[in-house]
Amino acid sequence: MKCLFRSVLVAAAMLPVAAQAAARLKLDDKASLWPRAGMEEKIDFTNRMGKSMTQLSPDLSNHYFMRCLEETANVGDTKGLTRGDLVRTCVSLHMGRDGQN
């Protein structure tokens, strides 16, 4: 009985961790879902993009991606686009602005 109680307690403690991992925004998510995502989810996603993309350019920071994704996801019809499409658009816009190829 004591072992069962411990198992239930451990399982209950792991639920928030599993829920958080399941709630992470992904590149293949629909772009139209971005405006409805929570701020913590957006910050987590843009932090991950900033960490991976600053190797291309130091200006491709989490702040840049937050601003760019907010602007691009709220303009026009994004129904057929994924979040990865928006990230590629943000990178292309930045590289074009700086004249980099």
Key features of this structure:
mainly alpha; 4 helices
Shape: globular
**Major sheet summary line:** none
SSE order, one letter for each helix or strand: HHHH
Low-confidence stretches: 3-22
Q: How many individual helices?
A: 4
Describe the protein.
With 101 residues, this protein is an all-alpha fold. It is built from four helices and no strands. The longest helix is centred in the first third of the chain and has 22 residues. It is globular. 16% of the residues are buried. The N terminus is likely disordered.
Write the layout of secondary structure elements.
Elements: H1 2-23, H2 39-53, H3 62-73, H4 83-97
Helix pairs in contact: 2-3, 3-4
Brief synopsis:
With 101 residues, this protein is mostly helical. It is built from four helices and no strands. It starts with a helix and ends with a helix.
